[in-house]
Amino acid sequence: MAGLTPTTPQPEDITVHGQSRVLEIAFSDGARFRIPFELMRVYSPSAEVQGHGPGQEVLQTGKREVTLLGLEPVGNYAVQPGFSDGHNSGIFTWEYLYFLGKEQEQLWADYARRLQEAGAQRDDPMAPPKGGHGCASH
Asked: Residue 101 in 3-state DSSP?
């Protein structure tokens, strides 16, 4: 399975905290993380966010208030969240959620740097897709 090895920590408890907009996840190795929905949305592993190769990532903005509408299991190795902005194509493996939790300080710093380089603000609305086609034309 994607990202699973015998040493991959397995989740023992997952709690969606809607009010504070965080996913709390406890792993079999004793690690416990509180991952903000915004961080999950900004770093969604979907092609819509990550692109189809290096350099094709799409900078996500305006996701501070995003909430989770659902969290569906994917086999025994992942979950697929449905976000309030309509995004629902990212499959978050246990390994990826562990990475998001463990590295969130660095990920936030990288996100802030990427925003600065793009001349964008965290709460800016998403720019329309390049090329004139895609999700939104208005």
From this structure: helix
Encoding tokens for residue 82?
């449905």
Element (H, E) at 50: helix 47-50
Pairing of strands 22-27, 11-17: antiparallel
Its pTM stands at 0.88
Q: How far apart are CA 82 and CA 66, in angstroms?
A: 10
Structural contact between residues 125 and 60, judged by C-beta atoms closer than 8 angstroms: no
Question: Average pLDDT of 106-130?
Answer: 91
Q: How far apart, in whole angstroms, are the C-alpha atoms of residue 36 and residue 26?
A: 15
d(CA 105, CA 86): 26
The answer, yes or no, to whether residue 134 has pLDDT greater than 50, is: no
d(CA 64, CA 49): 16
Three-class secondary structure of residue 27 per DSSP: strand
